[in-house]
Design a protein that fits this description.
A hairpin with a 2-residue loop joins β11 and β12. The chain is about 25% helix and about 30% strand. It is α+β, with helices and mostly antiparallel strands.
């Protein structure tokens, strides 16, 4: 029977990071088959694991995936939609995207089977960063960059202040802490610009580096642990 370290069990059930699991184990809060667990112990599905007396069921392991979405792929789980993101990945288990990227946009998007983490990542009050590289239809200037950074009125209210950095004649980098519907495109349009390309390169600490267009992979152990720590898990 396959066994895993007790701290990995906690991360696979989406409860907390390995580091936090180790702290729980050191505090004596975790038991295996009724006895206090020790750091580094291994467990299997025949073992009963509890935290503060509450049994933690062996569920499906939490999966966290990063994907380099091409232009044309639709961020939906609806199977009848052509080129929906779930069909593109063909992952063997049920997963769903965290947030959205427009069909005409490309770049990094996360997918998971962990429903609890979605709101923890997306809720504006947590201030999790998302970074984009944008190309527009005419030259950007200081006034445009300053207005974008200070906030633009879209859909009847101002966007939150953000970081905007020039990258060339018609390109800039923007870091948002909110994710309103088609936000960057609407911001640019309000200032008289049209977005020609929009590419997300980072969500929180997770970057698109090393992922070819259309490629996906599960998060590394470090990426996963930092993600769980960032959402208080």
């Amino acid at each position: 029977m396959v066994s895993i370290r007790i701290n990995k069990f906690f991360t696979e059930q989406g409860i907390c990071s390995r580091r936090e699991a180790d702290r729980l184990i050191e505090s004596g809060a975790v038991t295996i088959n009724g006895r206090v667990a020790k750091l580094g112990e291994r467990v299997s599905r025949s073992d009963v694991i509890a935290r503060d007396g509450q049994v933690i069921p062996w569920g499906k392991a939490a999966v966290y995936i990063k994907y380099h979405k091409p232009v044309g792929v639709v961020t939906t789980s609806e199977p009848h939609v052509p080129r929906n993101i779930i069909a593109e990945l063909s992952y063997p288990e049920r997963i769903f995207p965290i947030g959205r990227l427009d069909k005409d946009s490309s770049g990094l998007i996360l997918l998971t089977n962990d429903g609890d983490i979605v709101n923890q990542i997306l809720r504006t009050e947590f201030g999790h960063e998302r970074e984009y590289v944008v190309e527009v239809d005419r030259p950007v200037n200081r006034q445009f960059l300053a207005q974008m950074a200070g906030g633009v009125e879209i859909l009847g209210r101002m966007t939150k202040p953000c970081t905007v950095l020039p990258m060339g004649h018609r390109r800039f980098r923007i870091i948002l802490t909110e994710g309103r519907n088609r936000q960057i495109r609407r911001m640019c349009s309000a200032l008289g610009y049209r977005v020609k390309s929009l590419h997300r390169v980072r969500i929180m600490h997770i970057t698109i580096d090393g992922l070819a267009v259309g490629e996906w992979r599960e998060l590394t152990r470090l990426e996963r642990e930092r993600l769980l720590q960032a959402v208080g898990r």
